[in-house]
Amino acid sequence: MTAPPTRADPALLRPGRPLYEEVRAHLTEGIAAGRWKAGEAIPSEAGLAAHFGVAIGTIRKAVDSLVAQGALVRRQGKGTFVTAHDGRRLMFHFFHVVGEDGAKAYPEVRTVSFERARADAAEAAALAIARDERVVRIRNVLALAGEPVIVDDLTLPSALFPGLTERIFTARDNTIYHLFQSRYGINVLRTDERLRATLAAGAIGALLRVPAGSPLLEVRRVALTFRDRPVELRVSHVNTARHAYHNTFGKGDA
Amino acid sequence: MTAPPTRADPALLRPGRPLYEEVRAHLTEGIAAGRWKAGEAIPSEAGLAAHFGVAIGTIRKAVDSLVAQGALVRRQGKGTFVTAHDGRRLMFHFFHVVGEDGAKAYPEVRTVSFERARADAAEAAALAIARDERVVRIRNVLALAGEPVIVDDLTLPSALFPGLTERIFTARDNTIYHLFQSRYGINVLRTDERLRATLAAGAIGALLRVPAGSPLLEVRRVALTFRDRPVELRVSHVNTARHAYHNTFGKGDA
DNA sequence: AAGTGGTCTAGACCACTAG
DNA sequence: TAGTGGTCTAGACCACTTC
Is there a contact between A195 and B213 if contact means CB atoms under 8 Å apart? Predict the structure, then answer.
């Protein structure tokens, strides 16, 4: 007695692809649009099943994929929540510099410059915006155990961060990506990085207190939100004399 | 009328953790032990369900996790197969050097030295073997578009690669990890990497044809198989003047 | 006790591959 | 046509959280 599938709202789901993908797309849309904000719960699985008119198992499959993507987290007995980048999460998900022994540590961040400008060609290409669009450029020095180890140069499209001032930026009480999320509703989901070895020179060398010609690791990172939309360009220079950039490929253990 | 769960072979599954984890562990064990070799099909889902005495959905959940881990691949209508590292798979899963434009290319590999030795302290620690255990050290130069770009120094525990000779190593017609798999039944599932910037010197600089003092990217990689057992230490030096190391964090798009 | 996610079952039907 | 994986349903029961 397999009942014919009835939709609570047939218009919600159009055929052609699996139902769970449709559901997933709707949930993604809701999160990206800020309908459920970071840290908030989405409706219960039973509620979603009723709303979309599908079985709970189908909802679970859609939610599973968003959990795997990092957009949602489940908490048994409580609900399913939009991933919040507060505290440690982002730090240990996207910050990859470790000590020689492999130990992770929290960096202390100091902002040394904050200015408005127009995107140059490289920035425009990386951020998928037009040349000469307004951007904010920020330079931070990150110290580990009191020693400056990283110089970060951020470029942010002003259009995505309206009203961002140095005061707001430096007054944040948490990670930068948490600021993106809590104030601007931007959820960083992925990063794309290019690494190269360079030589210390000029201001960066001075900030890191290394002689010119010292080797530095350059990391060029683009942070992406839903639909692979770029939201931040970050060029880091890392003194790897006493630290390393840590990286792992392939999931799970077993 | 929920029938009491009956096991075809109750001894196969002990309680205490979810059934799908038990099933997964059994499958993992079978693959790691070489019961199903790379490229071969495991039993059908229906067959596994009958064998373990569980529902097909439970089998699917176990297989799902192994697919996510990269140990198995599904092919609709054909079966589920142990991942084979032949051809492109490993290449683009674990080889991360790209051109300035982001284009990937196949490297040409040339072996410049092959010798037997005893593990030094660093190698022993990385490979979780005793000091002075027998190892094989291999140095390769990888060229992209005819230009030498990478020097790879591999250290392999001899115990895992019995009878490995330079002739066998250089006569392979595929990637190195494919050789591991096809000849020694070793499936590389994960890698753990530490990156730093260094300066060219000595033989490595000469092989890469760069002047002493040029910046090089150093990648120290440990390749792991099931149960996070280390099987290879690889220290790479990359000339990033015209290439970059590419890296992506966070899964999926949407 | 009520509500949430987590596991597991049993079966229907679809989509793809092979002989 | 038979066998495989892929989607989906409907419901039971468990584990955890909150009131």
Answer: no
**Best residue of A188, A225, A245 to probe chain B, by most B CBs closer than 10 Å:** A245
Note whether B245 contacts A94, CB cutoff 8 Å. no
Instruction: Specify the pTM.
Output: 0.88
> Which residues of chain B make contact with A193, given a CB cutoff of 8 A?
246-249
Judge whether residue B88 has pLDDT over 90. no
Split at pLDDT 50, 70, 90, the class of B13 is low
Residue with smallest Cα–C1' gap to D7 = A18
Nearest protein residue, CA measured to C1' of C7? B18
CA dist list (Å): A219 to A111, A237, B122, B196: 18, 6, 27, 11
Residue B101 touches chain A, beta carbons under 8 Å: no
Tens digit of each residue's pLDDT (9 = 90 or more) over B202-222 = 999 999 999 999 999 999 999
**Confidence class for position B254, pLDDT limits 50, 70, 90:** very low
Whether the per-residue pLDDT at A11 is higher than 50: the answer is no
What domains, with CATH codes, occur in chain A?
A: 10-82 (1.10.10.10), 87-245 (3.40.1410.10)
- Would you tell me the crossing angle of helices A56-69 and A45-52 to the nearest 10 degrees? 120
Give me the helices (H) in chain B, please.
19-32, 45-52, 56-69, 88-94, 121-127, 166-171, 176-184, 202-208
Answer whether B108's CB lies under 8 Å from B142's CB.
Answer: yes
